[in-house]
Structures are given as C-alpha cells and as structure tokens.
Amino acid sequence: MESSGLEVACKESAVFSSRICSWSVRLVWGGVVAALVVGWAGADEGAEAGRRERLRQAVEWLAAPEREGRGPGTPGIDAAAEWVAEQFAAIGVRPPADEAAAFQQFAMTLDAKLGPPAENVAEIVGPPGPDGQPVITRLELGRDFTPLAAGGSGAFDLPLAFAGYGITAPAEKYDDYAPLAAAPGGVKGRAAIVLRQEPQKDDPHSVFAGNQASQHAALVRKVANASEHEVGGLVFCNDADADGDTLMAFTRAGEGTEKRSLPVLQIRRSVVDDVVRRSLGRGLGEIQKSIDESLEPASKPLEGWRIRGRTAIKRVETQGRNVLAVMPGRGAPAAEGRPAIPAAETVVLGAHYDHIGYGGANSAEPGKRAVHHGADDNASGTALLVEVARQLAAAGPLPRRILFVAFSGEERGLLGSGYYAANPVVPLGDTVAMVNLDMVGRLDGDKLVMHGTGTGTGLDALVDRLLGQHRFTAAKEPGGFGPSDHASFYAKKVPVLHLFTGSHADYHRPSDTADKINYDGMVRLAALVADIVRELATAPERPAYIEVASKMFARGGGDRPYFGSIPDFGKPGGGYAISGVAKDSPAAQGGLRGGDLIVRIGGSAITALEDFDSALRKHKGGEKVPVVVKRDGQEVTLEVVLGQPR
Fold first, then answer.
1. Quick one: which of 52, 99, 473, 600 is 20 to 30 A from 26 by CA?
2. What is the model's pLDDT at position 555?
3. What is the pLDDT of residues 65-99, one digit of tens each?
4. Beta strand segments in 383-462, E
C-alpha cells in the first residue's frame, strides 16, 4: 500500500517539477492522502507560475516602445486594440453580436493643427490718416503673429481694447476687465489684448503668490477668463520682461480640444506697442510698470483701432475603439427562498487600455517628448482584465452574463466609458454592477484601494469577506465617482467597484515601465477579482444602487468652492455638460441634474470645462450664485450655494 502510494504521488506531480516529486517521496510514508495534497499544492504553484508569466508578457507587450505609449491616433493603440480582441477570442469569449461588434467606435478629437497660410491672415486697422484713409498694418504669419490652437476658426473684424494681464482675481482684489466693463460699449465683442505673466511677478511680497507664478498666470486660465467675459477675440502679447519677442508654439495656450469659437492670437510686442502708444499716449513698458507698482488695472478701449482677418484651425479627429467580449450567462431557476436569476443580467468588468502616447499636456513632464509606456497605467489593468476573463471562461458559464470591456479615451476624460454608458450594448437596467481595474500593478504588501464599496447593497460586506479570504487590506472609499471609467457607470446609477494599488512617482511619466510591476501581486489580484465577479454573477439578489455623498475628483479642484457636478466629457463645446450631480452636493441642492448644459455662472459665460473651473474660482464657499443651464432646449436659472473647498 505504501509503495502504491509512492507511485501515485510521483505520477500526480510529474507534470510539474522534480522538486515536487521529491517532496512527495519524503511525505508519502505518512500516507497516500499527504502525498496527494502536496501534489495538488504543486499544481496550484504551477498554475500561478503560468498566470504570472502571462501577465508579465502582456504588460511588457502593451508597454513596449513599439506601442507608442498607446496614445490616441497612433498605430500603437490600434495594435493594442487588436491584441485585446485576439486575446478575448483565444480565451473563448466572443463579441456581443458578431465580429464587427468586437469594437465600439466613437469620435475623439486628437489635437489641432494650423491650416494653410492663405487661411490665416490678420491686419490691424487704425483711425484715418491725413489722407482720410484708415492706416492698415498687414501682419505676416509666423513673423508678426500666429493663431493659437486654443482658439477657433473663421473670419473676424473686432474693435481692440487693452486688457492689462487679462486677470480677474477677486481674492487678490484685482480685475483687468473691470475698467472695460464700465467703459462705453463694455467689453463684450471686443478683441482683448493681454500681457503674458502677471503683475509683480518678481516681487516676493506680491499678492500673486510672491515671485512664484500663480494660477492666474496660466495662459489657459486667461483664455477661459476672456471667454467668461464674452470677448470677441483674444490677443496675447509678450510682457516687457520676456526673453526677446518670439512667438509662442501653436499649442502653448492649449491643445484646442475645447473647440472654442473665439479667435486666439499672439502678436509681436513691437506691433502691439505701436498701436497702444498711438491710442493711449504711452507704451506697453510704461503701462506695465504702472500696473506693477500700483496694482491698479490700466485697461482701456483702443478707440478707432480694429483687428480683422481670419483663422483656420484644423481639428484632428480619430476613431477611439472600446473592445468588447461576452461570456453568456446560463441563468438560474428560482429555488426555495431564492428568486430566479435571468441570464440577461450582466456584470461588467472593465479596464482602459489607452495611455498618453508621447506625453503632452497630461504628462507629469510636459516639456519632454518621449514614449510614456504606461505599464501600470493601464497596461496592468488591461492584462488583469484578460487574465480574469481567461480564468472565468475556463470555469464555465455563470448565472449572469459577464461583459468584458477594454476602454479607450480614458486619459482624454473617460471618453470611451462615457460613450458606452450613453450607448450600452447591454441595457443599463440589466447591468448589475461594474468592476473597474486601473493601475493595479504596484501592489505594496497587502494594501489595496477600493472605491465604490457603498454604491450598492451588500458590496461592502462582499468586499470585506473576499479581502479577508485573499489576505488583503484595503483603504475603502464608499463613493462611486472618481478619475476612472467606473464613474461613467455610477453616473448612470449602476453600482461600481474600482480596484487601485496606489499612485507613485512614475505616474504619467516615461518611467512607468514594465520592470517596475509587481507580477506576483497581480497574480493575487487576479484571484481576488475573479472571485468578486463570480460572486456578483452568482448572488441571488443583485446589489441595489445607492446614492453616496462622496468625495469628488474634479480637475483643478482643491482650492476652489465645491460644486458637485459630474462632467460629461463626451459632449464638449457650447457650455459645460454634466452627466450627474453628487448626492447632497451644492449642485444637487440647487436643482441641477444629469443632462444639463451649464452656460453661465454668476457673471461668467461658460463655453467649456476650463471656463467652469475658472468661474468657480471667482467665488467663495457659502456664496449663492445664479447658474444658468440649458435643459430640454430651454434656459433655466437656478440658485446654488457653493460649498467650501475640498
């Protein structure tokens, strides 16, 4: 019997390593059962080694230089989309309907490019000269002026005004637009000339953050402020302290994804100085000095002076692609005390596969053009998505359907998941929950971050139980809004869970590389995620949606009043579109709701998200402000009491 037991133990272990078999030899004398247990432990170890190797290969492939940082519009992201679809097919999970349905396409604005020189022309028209004819100064593209990507396209003919630094800063008691608003004709419809930088920029005691650049110096903020004041156009001019009088790069004031209509130009200081001197009797240097010394605006209309011409900004668009696959559900009949589970009910498991390409505005090193590999963000989540799909498919159908989605456009503002939520392939009413994987490659010990634990009944208990079984500890955030794709589902009242292993110094830098990933940690996470999805797909009762008053994650937040709206990035232009509002937030209490388009806050016109952020900064927590929204084709004015900054 003992000899027979030894033979069984070695056969059970032969498919693994000789080390496992030798362990069996030493333990077999304790009985056949002991030998078999060790054999199965070896099987588990071998399976984990296979998972680790697959995860490593997947992350290395997705984060390789050839994938070009999986930036939108690159061949690298196209290859990544095809790779995900091929992995799903090999695993045995198929597109929702047919092969074409493997990809859900949506439009995405990549960037802006300057149109041909013949379509980008400008001239300054002055008051009539001695001969009675207006003085016309034609500007040469690339030498005297340049259009900027932050602006729009089309013809313009606008009266000019000097608007100082183009800053409105209530906290600092400074507003360059106030004198223009009080002047005859106001500021609306004028082309505002603004200096770069900010007053007293070299003064360590300046109200504008001393000699450090404050938020008001940012060109994107000046564009937003001009838009809020409903100017007809914006002309940037180098301040007197600039190193030379060179023209800025085309995208220096923004990449043009906001799709503004007003023209935004830069004109050489020498040209502007001549116009200002003729109109106001003193040059830019003298005016700038007086502003810096007194901190009093010197803005004035330039009577009799106009700028006219046309700009052509070509918006470059691409087709983003979500990659979808389904593991059909088998349903479950009603049993004693348990309702039936319809096979059409669905659990969504998702991760975004895009990253930021060669860098740009979203890079933590914006001046550096290099492949941003995105190993943790989010090759790790994509690899884990595929691995969990493999594990679930191998075990066979569950009562509920599982929809696997690799999203694109997340780095551009949740575009892919936002598009899916607006155009779901599975009705949202049948969507039981969404589990999201984003930056799950840097597990440190046993510590996880888990968002959404309060968004559905039973989720908190489920998470606690499975974390204990898999020996994890987690910082739990009950809310469902956050800077990743789960927020798009929660805004549609779907319970969510979002797994995250934490941020790090390599975030959005070229140094986020595959060699820094904790692959053993990812193996452990794959087992945890598979169990979470399995339980959601098997539980007799689906989690009921819970509206949670949760911490918000808004771009540029932290030092401005709390509002509580959820942006709808899939509907840019014409205002600030929202997909929902946070529970008990100022926006909710003021009557805003998903689908509203915010077009004005207080005295500020809103045409884009940057305007919204800039406008809020002009107010304080506790202040009541009128908010105008477009709703069902009508303008509705609401009163919102702003919250304290968060």
1. 52
2. 36
3. 999 999 999 999 999 999 999 999 999 999 987 65
4. 401-407, 431-437, 447-451
Name the pTM for this structure. 0.75
Stretch 191-218: mean pLDDT: 88
At 108, the pLDDT band (50, 70, 90 cuts) reads: confident
Name the one residue in this structure whose structure tokens are 């319809």.
342
Strand partners, 421: none
pLDDT beyond 70 at 252: yes
Q: Hey, is 566 helix, strand or coil?
A: strand
Give whole-number Cα distances, 22 to 18, 37, 114, in Å: 6, 14, 71
The sign one gets for the Cα dihedral 360, 501, 414, 419 is positive
Residue 214 has pLDDT above 50, yes or no: yes
**CA–CA distance, 638 with 572 (Å, rounded to integer):** 22
Local structure of residue 94 (DSSP, 8 states): B
SS3 (DSSP) at 571: coil
Render 372-400 in DSSP notation, one character per residue.
Answer: ---IIIIIIHHHHHHHHHHHHHHH---SS
For 98, residues 6+ apart whose C-beta sits below 8 A from its C-beta are none
The SS3 of residue 539 is coil
Cα–Cα distance measured from residue 547 to residue 588, given in angstroms and rounded to the nearest whole number: 12
Could you tell me the maximum CA-CA distance found in the chain, to the nearest angstrom?
A: 121
Q: Would you say the C-alpha torsion 559, 417, 354, 598 has a positive or negative sign?
A: negative
Looking at residue 567, its pLDDT comes to: 81
Q: Which two tokens stand for residue 430?
A: 């049948």
> Contact at 8 Å (CB) between 355 and 70?
yes
13 pLDDT above the threshold of 70: no
Burial of residue 622, with CB atoms counted within 10 A of its CB: 0-12 exposed, 13-18 middle, 19 or more buried: exposed
Q: 381 Cβ partners below 8 Å, 6+ apart? A: 351, 352, 353, 436, 437, 438, 439, 440, 441
Measured between alpha carbons, how far is 399 from 402 in angstroms, rounded to an integer? Answer: 9
Residue appearing with tokens 């339980």 = 535
Neighbours of 486 (CB within 10 A): 30
How far is 449 from 451, CA to CA, in rounded Å?
A: 7
Q: Which pLDDT does position 112 carry in this prediction?
A: 87
State the average pLDDT over residues 504-532.
96
Q: Partners of 407 in the beta sheet?
A: 352
Token pair listed for 278? 């003729």
Show the beta-strand stretches assigned E in 463-549. Answer: 473-477, 496-500
**What pLDDT, in 10s, does the model give residues 367-396?**
789 999 999 999 999 999 999 999 999 998
- Is-contact 401 94, C-beta < 8 A? no
- Quick one: CA dihedral 328, 334, 337, 339, positive or negative? positive
User: How far apart, in whole angstroms, are the C-alpha atoms of residue 77 and residue 353?
Assistant: 8
> What is the token pair recorded at 244?
């030379």
Higher pLDDT, 461 or 36: 461
Is residue 167 within 8 Å of 134, Cβ to Cβ? no
pLDDT band at 147 (very low <50, low <70, confident <90, very high): very high
Phi-psi map region of 396: left, alpha, beta (phi>0 left; psi -120 to 50 alpha): left
* Cα angle: 348, vertex 354, 357; to 5 degrees: 175
Q: Per the structure block, which two tokens stand in for 174? A: 């400074």
* Two tokens, residue 220: 């994107």
Contact 369, 358 (CB under 8 A): yes
3-state secondary structure of 96: coil
What pLDDT does residue 512 have? 96
User: Among positive and negative, which fits the CA dihedral 227, 230, 232, 236?
Assistant: negative
